[in-house]
Every structure is written in structure tokens, then in C-alpha cells.
Amino acid sequence: MSNSPTSSGQVSRRVATLISAATVFGALIVFAYFALIDPIPVDDAAVAPLETEGIVVFAAAGVAILAGAIAMVIWLGRPIRKWLRLIEAGTPASELPPNVARLVLIWPLVGASLVAAGSLVVAVFHSILYDDPGNFVGIAIGGAVGTTIVYFGTDLIWREQVPTFFPDGNLSSVHAFRLSVRRRLLLAFALIGGLTPTLLVVLTQARTRAMLDAENPQAILDNLVVVQLYILGVGLLAGVITAILVARAIVGPLEDLQAAMGRVEDDELDTRVAVTTNDELGYLGERFNVMTDGLRQGERLRELFGLYVSSEVAQAAVESGAGLGGTLVDCTVVFSDIRDFTTLSEQMPPARLVEVINRYMTAMVSVVVDHGGVVTRFGGDSIMAVFGTPLNPMTDHADRAVRTAIGMRRALAAFNDEETLDRLPNLRSGIGIATGPVIAGNIGGRERIEYTVMGDAVNLAARLEEKTKDAGAPILMSAETYQALDGADALNARTLTDVEIKGKRDPVTAYALPEP
After folding, report:
1. How far, in Å, CA of 26 to CA of 139, rounded?
2. Residues 202, 320 within the same domain
3. pLDDT tens, residue by residue, 116-162
4. Distances (CA, A) of 473 to 63, 364, 365, 406
5. Is 3 buried (19+), middle (13-18) or exposed (0-12) by CB count in 10 A?
6. 335 within some domain
7. Is residue 271 in some structural domain?
């Protein structure tokens, strides 16, 4: 892909220059053929002397052919120029008529066909006019070389203009003639690689037969050497030019695609390649763009999925599917709930309440994620987070859970400071923490599933949160959590014995943390 777009005027000038140069080059080949090779020598001179009349005739013929080719190109290109002006003026490219779309895609072939047709007409005319098949051979080789250069050169230049007509790059939807890469290579070989040895054989045989009856065999032999050098020079020069053009036509799109794949590998999913041909390379570019569109869509879905569930749950679902089932693990559960939420909801308009709760949840979830936790449930005004499940395995899950609870209390204090500035009521919350074995996994049915944890530790964390108000402490943790901590003595936790927990037959011991 080019770094800066090429204007339509620049493209037109470059195409005209190429056609002119290719025509002049072909005319020089024809002139050299008639000046050095044809006719076969009848005297002692190996080549015929250059005559002013011949130079003038060939110059005039070359100018006429060039002028005629350019005039035909201009006439046939009227629809393209009309729609180019319309598109540049703001007309959507999607309104491009099918016939113009087809003409845009085969335009390089049109230009080459005009050159080929003009050369063929001139070759047939001169061979009939002078009753000499050699005239046809000489003009045909120059026309073949010029046609090849015009086609492959125009194809390269015109590719810079194609995206103007097809900004979406969907060229395969246009029913136009397609010259495949294989046919293109065969065409180049036939016009250059096949014509050169054929011409060498024909001209060599003609001179060999002439030597048998000639009075000056040495002159004919010398002329044969000139013929061989001529064909060698024309073949090498035309072959090199064609090889460069064909290589650029094939390697260029592949290099662009390779660079684009590297950018996609670096997560630049908005990468696209310019589709400029309707052959296999163009189709490959189209499929690449479709692939990146799918990747962007998948990334958007994954991001949306990650908003409804935690990023860890989304990642697990993407990588291993969403099968039902669970795993028994030892982890720590944190349960947080806003106190007196019903009273708060009665004091605020619904829209304002939702806004406040969303900002509160954002602040709390950020603390959980920063400490490696996974939020498995939102309950309107409550949050449940887990540490140490298969989604976030860790050996220090109790320490992380307690640090998360302390961080949530600090985040709530900062949140309330901002709410005070807006003259909104402060939020109050309680946090319960419990450690123990739970079942972690996907629970639900075929239509809907949820990643969650179930077990006594989950129920205990919720019940401890309910007890925070009676205990006069913002955070209560179970004895199992306290015993699993590394450096629990530094927390200055207050021991609460014989705490009655709903659903448990025997009282439990809990530990209360002061406000951080």
C-alpha cells in the first residue's frame, strides 16, 4: 500500500507516458528489423544502409499508431472519467453502473488490446501491400513487445486508481473478465519467451536456404549473425522489462498482505489491504479483509461478553466452551452489600439512582480486579467476588481477599467524598469474607448458564456481611480466613465469639476489622 494517495491526473499522465514509451520502443524494434535484417542481402553488404525515406516513413507510421491508440483510449475511457469526477465530487461509489465497473476492472486489458489490434492491422497491411510475409513478422514482434509492456505496466499503474471506484474492495462481486495470474504468466511467456525463439528459427531457416543459392554466402552468413544478435538483444531487453513488471504485479500485493498480517498479529485488527485486482491476489486480499472484519466483530462480542461477565469467565468460555459442571476448590469469597438500599432508592429518582450505583460498582469492581479477584455476581446493590478458583488460581487467596475488602472500604470513602460535593447521600456498606471448599463452575441450562460458586463458604460470607451492622464493624471474616492469613496479627482484628449465623446450628467465631 502506498503511503500517500495518487491523484487521478497523475495516474492518467503515467498511463499516457507508458503507452507512448511502449509504442516508441515497439516502433524502434520494427525499424531495427527492417533496417538490419529484412530483406536478405543480395550484394556483399551484410545489412542494408539506412535511408532517410525509410526513417521518415517509420517515424510517421509510429506517430500515427501512437496518436490513434491514445485517441481510442481517450474515447473508450469517457465513462470512467465521467464517474471519476462524480465520485470525487461526492457521489457514492456504490452507485457505479455495472458496465462502468466492468470497464474499470478490464481497463489495462483494453489499452493493451488497442495496441495489439493496431500492430496487427499494420502488420497485415504491410505484408499484403508489399507481398512480403517478412513484413508481418517484423511488425508483429514489435507489436507483441509493446502490447506486453502496455498491459503489465498499465495494470500496475491503474491499481492505484481502482480503490477510488471500489472503496469496499469487493471486486469479486463484479461480473467482469478475469485474467488469472496463471494466464497472465502464460501470456507473458507466449508473447516474449515463445515469440523470440520462434522468430530465431524462422529467420535462421530463411537465411540457410538463401545461402544455398546465393552468390554471396558470406554476406548472408554475416547477416545471420546480425539477426541472432538482434533477436538476443530484443529478447533479453523485453524479457527483463516484462519480468520486472510481472514480478511487481505479483510480489507487491503479497508484500502488502504480509505486512498487514504482521499488523494483525500485533492486535491491529482495523488493518485492511487495498484490493486492486479481480484475480487470485485480489480475492486473497478480499478474504483477508473479511477475516479482519470477523476478528473485529469477535473482539467486540468478547468485550461485550466481558461486560456481562468477568474477563476471566469470558476468556474461559472462548477457549474451552461453555459446558456445564463444576470443580471442588478451596477459595475465599468476598460478599459486599449496600446498607439501607431500599431507603436510598425511595429518596432518589430511578435514573439518578442507577447512575450512582453504576459509579459505585465501577469503583468496587476496580479494586477487586486489581487484586486478582473475579466478580461472579451482581445483586443490584451487592457484589460477590471469589479468589482462588480455577479462573484465578492462587495460594494466597485469603490475603488477597482481605486486602480487597480493605481497599473497597477506602474506595467507598473516596466515593462518598465526591458524593458529598454533589449533595448526595453517602453510601454505607458491609463486607463479609469466608474461606473454605466450594464448587466452582458453570451452572444453569441449555438456554442460559452462569459461572458461580456454591458451598458453605458462600453462604457464610453473605451471613457475615449481614452481621457487620450488629457487630459495629465494616468487615467481618470467618475464622478459616483469619487462620489462612499471612501476618494476621498486624490487622488488629477483634475476635467475636459465639456469633449466631442463620442456617448454622452452632455459633461461629468471626473476626472484625476496623475502618481502614
Report:
1. 8
2. no
3. 887 777 777 767 766 666 667 777 777 888 888 888 888 888 988 89
4. 100, 18, 21, 12
5. exposed
6. yes
7. no
